[in-house]
Design brief:
The structure is a homodimer of 193-residue chains. Chain A has 193 residues and is mainly α. Chain A is 76% helix and 0% strand. The mean pLDDT of chain A is 96. Chains A and B meet through helix 6, helix 7, helix 8 and helix 9 of A and helix 6, helix 7, helix 8 and helix 9 of B. Chain A binds a DNA duplex (30 and 30 nucleotides) through helix 3.
Chain lengths: 193, 193
DNA sequence: ACACGACTAGAACGAACGCTCTACCCAATA
DNA sequence: TATTGGGTAGAGCGTTCGTTCTAGTCGTGT
């Protein structure tokens, strides 16, 4: 029996796919490359994911969803003031991006855009991820005393602005877009107090 | 000799590539599909773009750049108040997205993410496009009396938020993210008056 | 000792990829 | 009329794609 704490083949495959999707997107990532990166074989990939690339991609999107949500939650809980907490989120994203040599952006954005209107099952998985992240921000704002409707609306823009700024930061290889996004979002949130 | 006003083969190829990049991204678009869509042949594609897919993609990014800039400029000039003008931009994007059945998002975002860190020449072209659009917003704000540094900073967030909201709107097939982005950006801009 | 299911291994399929190549058409010049 | 060259046409190159398939390994329960 496999030890509970070592990483099984299935999990290695999902993580490899998630990482490759983050760095090069869905279309550019081949199953051969995935199996190599995961130190698995093509047979294993199709054993664990009979639905092929689509099924694996959906699982990888969910993995990226959880991963990103964990980071977001940690940053939001680290700082009490909601505006400053959002700045902390932006700073974390900037740091991760810079440290990876501007390679590790949002784990699912590229895939979300590539699948939109073309691969409904994957599109749905990415949509759920964004909704999930929005929920974290919305909860934080409500706990800080914001009315529910204001919190929900702001959560949309907070997540979308962070997404846009992360994309821009990656393309321009600069932390500026994310730092400005944090500052501006904090100001926007504060203006509703 | 070809009449000046009819569309030449080269231009048809660039437009087809730009449209396909907008709808399905760089990686998912094959040269065979491009030449079919453009009613041209593979020979013509390589005649006009000896550098192959990369050279054609760069030209298509520049085409999308100009196209998007034209829309942005039109919306910004249509309304005098800068906050309301940004709302007009968001509304235009939402309308275009809905009318295309949620297919026509930003013409270059998908390609920008796919090429970031992998195809430097294309990455550079997308970076220039974003800088160009940012310049339009920055100019509008400065003409409305904003100091240069504030205008430049705000322009970053305005473009990035619109980009993020457009992505989100496309994935969720809803105008809400763009409408909220417009409202919030207007409020943010007004807060600097 | 045996059988079984979980998992690994990789050859091979048809299709599509980016790209190269040769042949050809045809209007503009000399 | 002869020549030239921009542009068109499509067969075919080697490679890789997602997927299928058969064979084999290995640990476990009986």
């Amino acid at each position: 029996m496999r030890t509970k704490h070592e990483i099984g083949t299935r999990e290695r495959i999902v993580r490899a796919m998630s990482r490759l999707m983050q760095r090069q997107g869905y279309e550019a990532t081949g199953l051969k490359q995935i199996s190599q990166e995961a130190q698995a074989t093509l047979g294993s990939v199709y054993h664990f994911f009979p639905g092929g690339k689509t099924e694996l991609t959906i699982e990888a999107v969910r993995h990226g969803d959880r991963e990103f949500a964990d980071h977001l939650r940690a940053a939001l809980e680290r700082v009490d003031d909601p505006g400053q907490a959002i700045i902390a989120c932006a700073d974390d994203l900037a740091e991760g991006l810079r440290e990876s040599g501007w390679l590790d952006g949002c784990p699912i954005t590229t895939t979300a855009l590539e699948s939109a209107g073309r691969v409904p099952d994957i599109q749905r998985a990415t949509e759920e991820a964004f909704a999930n992240w929005r929920g974290l921000v919305s909860d934080k704002l409500r706990r800080s005393g914001f009315p529910e409707d204001v919190a929900g609306d702001l959560a949309h823009t907070v997540i979308n602005t962070l997404e846009g700024a992360e994309m821009s930061a990656q393309v321009s290889q600069s932390e500026t877009p994310l730092r400005l996004a944090g500052r501006h979002l904090a100001r926007l949130v504060d203006s509703y107090r």
